[in-house]
Specification:
The protein is mainly α. It is built from 7 helices and no strands.
Length: 162
């Protein structure tokens, strides 16, 4: 597969969820837009003659590589951005916004694999098998990354872990 028509169909089918994933990882709508374009440019550049059996996982893997490249570039430029509100925009309550900001900072501080695994599993709804295919490795490793991320969140917010 990998024909231009097939890639366009994948963009139509998976574009919104890949964009949401990039937005959650990068924390910026414009960066997510740029990341989505770069993801599909890479897909076009690296078309294969062999069929892609799991295009969704393959696209997430490419998008993850794009996001890591953008995050590395930011670090080299000394730029830091916050992870966006993950589920919903916080209500106007100051305490709620502060809590959301605190969660955002903890998620942002997670190692890359843990952050990606958490976002893919919890917010993108991928199965552990799919997360494993995206990040490379086994479902057990994907589960361990999500588990470690959740443990760190619980440690940071023990009052909410009960």
């Amino acid at each position: 597969m990998g024909s231009a028509d097939q890639i366009e169909a994948w963009a139509d089918k998976y574009g919104k969820e890949i964009h949401a994933y990039l937005w959650r990882i990068l924390g910026d709508a414009q960066d997510a837009d740029d990341g989505l374009q770069e993801t599909f440019l890479r897909v076009l550049r690296h078309r294969r003659a062999a069929p892609i059996l799991e295009p969704r996982a393959w696209l997430y893997a490419i998008a993850g590589n794009v996001a890591r490249s953008q995050l590395r570039r930011r670090r080299t430029e000394g730029e830091r951005r916050a992870l966006p509100d993950i589920d919903v925009i916080a209500p106007d309550g100051v305490a709620e916004r502060d809590r959301v900001d605190a969660v955002r900072r903890v998620v942002e501080s997670l190692p890359s694999k843990q952050r990606q695994a958490l976002v893919l599993r919890r917010y993108q709804g991928l199965t552990y098998d799919e997360v494993a295919r995206v990040l490379g490795g086994s479902a057990q490793t994907a589960r361990a990354n999500v588990y470690q991320a959740v443990l760190k969140l619980k440690k940071a917010f023990p009052e909410e872990a009960r």
